[in-house]
Design goal:
- This protein is α+β, with helices and mostly antiparallel strands and about 90 residues long.
- It has one domain: Dimeric alpha+beta barrel (Alpha-Beta Plaits).
- About 40% of the residues lie in helices and about 35% in strands.
- It contains three helices and four strands.
- A four-stranded antiparallel β-sheet has the order 2-3-1-4, covered by helices on one side.
- A hairpin with a 5-residue loop joins β2 and β3.
- The protein is globular, with a radius of gyration of 13 Å.
- The relative contact order is 0.33.
């Protein structure tokens, strides 16, 4: 199991308002399947980030690219593997 950070950079603020409910519904379903570690918007309104839990980059990419925000061109996707460091 690996973690992948999907940064969703805002491209269209007005269209975002229309697509947002579908984006949240999509993530809720993935969250129920244990595929989301964390998610939320950036406080400056420039987009948001989702941390996906996946076995491979391809699986994470599939989930990220099928997000309604990405499919509808509302946000630009940037996906990177994220390593969690434990601080003691």
């Amino acid at each position: 199991m690996r973690y992948y950070a999907a940064m969703l950079h805002m491209l269209d603020v007005e269209k975002n308002k229309k697509v947002l409910p579908y984006h949240i519904e999509y993530l809720d379903k993935l969250d129920q399947q244990g595929k989301v570690f964390g998610r939320g918007p950036f406080s400056d309104g420039s987009g948001g980030m989702i941390i996906y839990i996946a076995d491979t980059l391809e699986e994470a990419q599939y989930m990220a690219e099928n997000d309604p925000h990405v499919l509808e061109g509302v946000r630009r996707l940037e996906l990177k593997e994220w390593e969690i460091w434990k601080i003691s």
